[in-house]
């Protein structure tokens, strides 16, 4: 099946972001994409100072439009961090998934909040405004099971391992790595998660805007279960297409059967209920 990653140029105008995002989703569908993903924070600038201003409830303006375009195009649509979600007086970094009938299939709240301090380069603290999610998020399609994470979630291999244990063959991470962490770790982490768990990993970023207060690295990427980069964008707004070959995944798992050779008598990673 064909996967499309929409590397959107995000402006300060929510309505404009939504309009252009939906237009690119329609374009991707017309080119045969069955699963389409939008980047983290696609409907607002990325920054703690913006989260409260742009926050919505679910359902709300942004998710209603995503539901409508998913149904119109008969696709599975991953809404990036579609919105800062407001719920019960708290804000969450939330990714929604809609099916071909427009129904909400999954809602992933970012589990690991991005609180970092790299002296002289970048300091950022999502926990100043956001609360963490407390659950894994998976959804089924006729093609395969898909696991979701958001940006910083990609740094935690236990999360990806559990998704693999639960039968996911594709992991999708809407993300917005910056100009410090992007060139250092963006591709490296995706390749690590893919080869460790013998599955496909896709990470979709906003396009780079040098004038923004937070400058995204871009380079939306798809990695196969062998750890090879099979599709990659540059920094500009674009749509990345790739065909996901589940037969190749099965062959790799047969050739190097790490999943059946794990020493569960010595170690293990488990999901807590």
TrEMBL record:
UniProt entry tagged with the keyword Translocase: no
The main enzyme category here is hydrolase
Which positions fall inside the CN hydrolase domain?
1-246
Q: Which PROSITE patterns match?
A: CN_HYDROLASE, UPF0012
MF (Gene Ontology): omega-amidase activity
- Organism domain of life: Eukaryota
Q: Which SUPFAM superfamilies match?
A: Carbon-nitrogen hydrolase (SSF56317)
Q: Which Pfam families match?
A: CN_hydrolase (PF00795)
Known EC number: 3.5.1.3
Which InterPro entries does this entry report, sorted A to Z? C-N_Hydrolase, C-N_Hydrolase_sf, Nit1/2_C-N_Hydrolase, UPF0012_CS
Look up keyword Hydrolase and say if it applies. yes
Keywords from UniProt, A to Z, are:
Hydrolase
Reactions catalysed, semicolon-separated, are:
2-oxoglutaramate + H2O = 2-oxoglutarate + NH4(+); 2-oxosuccinamate + H2O = oxaloacetate + NH4(+)
GO CC annotations, alphabetized = mitochondrion
Please report which protein family the annotation says this sequence is part of: Belongs to the carbon-nitrogen hydrolase superfamily. NIT1/NIT2 family.
Which named protein is this?
omega-amidase
Question: What organism does the UniProt record list as the source?
Answer: Notiomystis cincta
């Amino acid at each position: 099946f064909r996967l499309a990653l929409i590397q959107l140029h995000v402006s300060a105008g929510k309505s404009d972001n939504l309009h252009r995002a939906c237009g690119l989703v329609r374009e991707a569908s017309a080119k045969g994409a069955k699963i389409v993903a939008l980047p983290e924070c696609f409907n607002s600038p990325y920054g703690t100072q913006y989260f409260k201003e742009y926050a919505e409830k679910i359902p709300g303006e942004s998710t209603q439009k995503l539901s409508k375009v998913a149904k119109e195009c008969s696709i599975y649509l991953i809404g990036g961090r579609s919105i800062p979600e407001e719920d019960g007086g708290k804000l969450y970094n939330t990714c929604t998934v809609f099916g071909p009938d427009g129904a909400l299939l999954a809602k992933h709240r970012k589990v690991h909040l991005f609180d970092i301090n790299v002296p002289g380069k970048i300091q950022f603290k999502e926990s100043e405004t956001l609360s963490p999610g407390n659950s894994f998020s998976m959804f089924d399609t006729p093609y395969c099971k898909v696991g979701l994470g958001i940006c910083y979630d990609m740094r935690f291999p236990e999360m990806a391992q559990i998704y693999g244990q639960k039968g996911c063959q594709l992991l999708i991470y809407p993300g917005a790595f910056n100009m410090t962490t992007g060139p250092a770790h963006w591709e490296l982490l995706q390749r690590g998660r893919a080869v460790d768990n013998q599955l496909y990993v896709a990470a979709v970023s906003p396009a780079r805007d040098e004038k923004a207060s937070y400058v995204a690295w871009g380079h939306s990427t798809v990695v196969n279960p062998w750890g090879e980069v099979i599709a990659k964008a540059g920094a500009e707004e674009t749509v990345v297409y790739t065909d996901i070959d589940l037969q190749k995944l099965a062959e790799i798992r047969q050739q190097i059967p790490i999943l059946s050779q794990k020493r569960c008598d010595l170690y293990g990673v488990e999901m807590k209920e």
